[in-house]
Amino acid sequence: KHCGCRSCNSPFPSRFQLAALERQVFDFLGYQWAPILANFLHIIIVILGLFGTIQYRPRYIVVYAIWTAVWVTWNIFIICFYLEVGGLSKDSELLTFNISRHQSWWSENGPGCVRKEASMSGIKGLDNHSYISVIGCALEYRYIEVMHSSFQILIALVGFVYACYVVSVFTEEEDSFDFIGGFDPFPLYHVNEKPTNLLFKQTYL
């Protein structure tokens, strides 16, 4: 089976996957373990949706459509986290499962940011340590993370609409598909009836 329209060859699914991979790379660089796990699951679901589109598996596409709601909710949480909404703090270790004090990769590598290290050897108990300061950032890192999450929400909404469209197309094609003559107005097996005039002749004889 194959889709008879252009939706199966649409570049949208591959773009969704590229957006997820891009997000995963920057979260890996920042050792953000909770987003890393969420992104990994998201990539798996996107691949599943892509497989369903190519291999005519509407159920897989439905799973992807349901997942988009979860993905939107997760990204809304990330936005609230970095904007410190509802008692959340961007300086907490929530996204690293409290096993490290790493922050977003953008906190030190954002546009215009200059990273400086100052020796702490003169302070007791902090020998061989350095203090890292970041100055000159054109945009605070939390806003970059907010823009990342907002873009993911937009992609997810587009993906949801696309998934619904593909499922509807597959459903229409499946309804109109002729299952081995199942919709043939003439039966597959029938008895050839004799013409009426021939029956009359046999009766007369």
State the main characteristics.
elongated, 205 residues, transmembrane helix, Na/K-Atpase_Interacting, disordered N terminus, transmembrane, 6 helices, membrane, disordered C terminus, cell membrane, mainly alpha
Structure, explained:
The chain is built from six helices and two strands, in the order ααααββαα. A two-stranded antiparallel ribbon has the order 1-2. The radius of gyration is 30 Å and the shape is elongated. The protein has helices at residues 12-29, 33-54, 58-82, 106-109, 141-175, 196-204; strands at residues 114-119, 130-135. The longest helix is centred in the C-terminal third of the chain and has 35 residues, at 141-175. Helix 1 (12-29) packs antiparallel against helix 2 and helix 2 (33-54) packs antiparallel against helix 3 (58-82). It has 205 residues and is mainly alpha-helical. The relative contact order is 0.14. The chain crosses the membrane at residues 33-54, 61-85, 151-170. This is Sodium/potassium-transporting ATPase subunit beta-1-interacting protein. It is a multi-pass membrane protein. InterPro entries: Na/K-Atpase_Interacting. It is found in: Cell membrane.
Helix content: 55-70%
Structural class by SSE content: mainly alpha
Number of helices: 6
Per DSSP E runs of 2 or more residues, the count of β-strands stands at 2
Average pLDDT figure: 79
What's the Cα radius of gyration?
30 Å
Tertiary shape: elongated
User: What pattern of helices and strands is seen along the backbone?
Assistant: HHHHEEHH
* Distance between the amino and carboxyl termini: 57 Å
Give unreliable regions as ranges: 1-7, 178-194, 198-205
Strand order of the largest sheet: 1-2
Strand percentage: 5-15%
Major sheet characteristics? 2 strands, antiparallel
